[in-house]
Amino acid sequence: MRVLIIKTSSLGDVIHALPVIDYLHQVSSGIEIDWAIEEHFLPLLEHNPHLARIHVIRTKKWRKAPFSPETRRDLKFLREDLQARPYDFVFDIQGNLKSGLVAWLTGASKRIGFSREVLQEKINSLFTTRRIPFRACDRNVTDRYLRVVSVPFGRDYPSLSLSSDIFSSPDDEEAADRYMAELPSGLVFFFQVGTTWSSKLWHPQGWIELARKTLEKYSDATILINWGSPAEKALGEDIIREVGDAVRLLPWFTIRELIPVIRRMDLVIGGDTGPVYLAAAVGTPTVSYYRATSAASYAPQGEQHRSIQAPMKCAGCGRTSCDKDAECRSSISVDALFNAVVELIA
């Protein structure tokens, strides 16, 4: 049997979908699994020994020049590549127009996706031949992906112990070892201070106070600040000025370079953002907080993870901005995050 998973983006969402690989191998011996993904997120999959083939999507490039000869050649090649490997099932767990078109290009007769009422882009339902509704127990986003994939196999996912991992090349693993060897001995904490929405951010003073309390408790520790924008870098520099040189800025790492570095951290702390989920996938403990989004839906699961939901009545609102933003940020206390850190490190 051969199946295609269509989960093209984003960083966190692709990571949340990784357990479907383990599920499929457990329920169908000898299965071949292909995956369609945006080029930017290819490092999450490219070394995975459990995937037979990866189809690379270049939507950003194609949108810039939709009618160019190069775009037409790329799309022609993608269609030929998809149809050269006939699929018994195509699972669209992205659920937008882009993923629907990829599913349609396969020519497969069984294209399975989300039920129409949960789709943000309803047009996606035109490209699937079977649409799977969620059940009440499907609270976490990973559960929802597994629900869609599991139905044709008749084996419910909660009965299985499922894992996810992200694999790196030997060269990238060695580079991470060299970077870690330059750090002082002691625990290494990873602070993910940035994310995509302002309504997912914590307040800067909170990060400063958390860094101070962490270093008071673990005096030989190092705190690494990850950043991906000038604003995030500036916040990291502010934390260093306030706390001292036990706090350092990480170099700017690509996703490929970041994976093995996060694997070597003792603990990752951050909000609803890709690097937190990357840490969970590679086996690194996490402490995460949630404001506009829901911990029940997105937080890493398991004994080595802790999550804090903002205690606001409107928490999990899904809004990208709000006039109560400052109040919501402050509602997540330093002590709540610090106590979770101590629980995991003890």
Automatic annotation (TrEMBL):
EC assignment: 2.4.99.23
Pfam entry (one): Glyco_transf_9
Membrane topology designation: Peripheral membrane protein
Keywords: Cell inner membrane, Cell membrane, Glycosyltransferase, Lipopolysaccharide biosynthesis, Membrane, Transferase
Intracellular or extracellular location(s): Cell inner membrane
Catalysed reactions listed for this entry: an alpha-Kdo-(2->4)-alpha-Kdo-(2->6)-lipid A + ADP-L-glycero-beta-D-manno-heptose = an L-alpha-D-Hep-(1->5)-[alpha-Kdo-(2->4)]-alpha-Kdo-(2->6)-lipid A + ADP + H(+)
Pathway the protein takes part in: Bacterial outer membrane biogenesis; LPS core biosynthesis
Family matches, as CDD domains: GT9_LPS_heptosyltransferase (cd03789)
Family that this chain belongs to: Belongs to the glycosyltransferase 9 family.
The name this protein goes by in its record: Lipopolysaccharide heptosyltransferase 1
Organism the protein comes from: Pelotalea chapellei
